Amino acid sequence: MSQGSNQIQAQEQLMLQSLSPQQILVIKLLELPNVELRDRIHAEVLDNPALEEGKEISDSTDSEADAFDDDDYSDKQESEDITLGDYLTEDDIPDYKLLENNHNRGQAAEDIPFSESVSFYEYLKEQLDMRPFSPREKEIAEYLIGSLDDDGWLRKGMSTLIDELCLYCDINSDTDELERMLAAIQDFDPAGIGARNLQECLLLQLKRKPDSVWKQNAQRILKKCFDDFTHKNKERILQRLDISEEEYDEAVSELTKLNPRPGSSLGEVIGKNMQQIIPDFYVETQEDGNIIMTVNSRDIPKLRLNREFHEMLEEHTNNKDNQSKASNDAFLFLKQKVESAQGFIDAIKIRQNTLEATMRAIIDIQRPFFLEGDESLLKPMILKDVAKRAKLDISTISRVSNSKYVQTNYGVFPLKYFFVDGFSKKGGEEESIWIVKKLLKEFVENEDKNNPYKDDELAEMLKEKGYTIARRTIAKYRDDLNIPTARLRR
């Protein structure tokens, strides 16, 4: 008896979720902002002769704006909900820069495009796509890239990032894994990107310089005498490192040529290539408290089936019994093109309905902000809250809110702006982080500039107000508000 015959074969049943081509198409369209959707539609029309631009006969009116408030919010909006959990695409929640374009309350929002420089986020994302990462690693790396500030630094602590990945992306990670992915990002261009402080930023740039005596001295200065270097304590550095004055001057001269803000310089270069950002939604707050929301479809072409294709398909269908092989091949071609065209039209409609349901849910939850325009009125809100109210899947909400913008009476905001972290006060009351940031700003503005508050003092003052927050979290919020440390506020 052969050795192979002794092996035991077993059958196992597995339940695997697979998405249909139509569902994948809807997913792709959901992720596109208006400008890219318009290009996608034009490409589809060119590719499929059964599809053409123009209003369908059954379409008597264009989609119009709907006014609503808390009392008339309705569940009549029904959208096809697609379970997307197993479909891995750009499902990240990065930090996006707010486009400043303030309007006075009550003033009608103008229909104008907004321009924004291409950020280093897109540039880093392109480099990430060229690396052979696993889907999990790619998602973590995308989140880290999205967490970089405008200087290209990662100012969030690892514990904060671990919590956010678990909350927003349902990924349980640890410090070792995040350090490994951050090291990969720090290998991207420009040199110094992903640094957590000035010392690390300069060392990352030195690492790519050709080996030389000045490079070795510069690395020693940064690693062993960084505080003395920042305070220009030349004599102490010469004494500690036992190097000559000429070697010191050469190393420092090269160090001053490095860029402490790699993300900012990259933005200046890429910013020459401008892309237009057109809001995907218009939200107007009226004097009587009504909120009018419109999904922007002005530049999105209407689509319909080509009448000739449709008539030829009907003719082939009616004469199916008397068809030759060539006629049958023609029939299959017509059928495939018409079905593809109809599927694309349906996917566009599903996208429209899903966008509307998502934006309605956001407005309903964050109604106080849309009435007043005060960021401190933003309520704690996560993807799950919007998904529950919109009756959609969480991953669907994530894709809708990615790269989408809304024009309001108070400016143009990315949808990510309205997703706010929250915490519980004493007594269980839920508050948003904007309340704490507003209080921090007031404390600092009213402090004695000769004796500014330290982070632990600010934490104690907030505790007296009923907000128990760790000192490291205070430091994070202070950085978000661009408030320097107490030593630099003197």
Q: Write down how many β-strands occur, each being a DSSP E stretch of 2 or more residues.
A: 11
Number of domains: 3
Mean pLDDT: 76
The protein's oligomeric status is: single chain
Question: Would you mind describing this structure in some detail?
Answer:
The termini are far apart. A hairpin with a 5-residue loop joins β10 and β11 (430-432). The protein folds into three domains: 21-73 and 80-87 and 97-115 and 279-418, no CATH class; 119-270, no CATH class; 422-489, Orthogonal Bundle (Arc Repressor Mutant, subunit A). α3 packs antiparallel against α4 and α13 (307-318) packs across α14 (325-365). The strands form four sheets. Strands 2-6-5-8-9 form a five-stranded mixed beta sheet, with helices on one face. The protein has 20 helices and eleven strands. The chain is of the alpha+beta class. The protein is 48% helix and 8% strand. The radius of gyration is 28 Å and the shape is globular.
Core attributes:
490 residues, alpha+beta, Arc Repressor Mutant, subunit A, 5-stranded mixed sheet, two-stranded antiparallel sheet, 20 helices, 11 strands, 48% helix
Gist of the model:
The chain is an alpha+beta fold and 490 residues long. It has 20 helices and eleven strands.
Layout of helices and strands, plus pairs?
Blueprint: H1 21-31, H2 34-47, E1 51-53, E2 66-68, E3 114-117, H3 120-129, H4 135-146, H5 158-169, H6 175-185, H7 198-207, H8 213-224, H9 226-230, H10 234-241, H11 245-255, H12 262-270, E4 274-277, E5 281-285, E6 291-295, E7 303-305, H13 307-318, H14 325-365, H15 367-372, H16 383-390, H17 394-401, E8 405-408, E9 411-414, E10 422-424, E11 430-432, H18 433-445, H19 455-464, H20 471-480
Parallel strand pairs: 5-8
Antiparallel strand pairs: 1-7, 2-6, 3-4, 5-6, 8-9, 10-11
Helix pairs in contact: 1-14, 3-4, 4-6, 7-8, 8-11, 13-14, 14-16, 16-17, 19-20
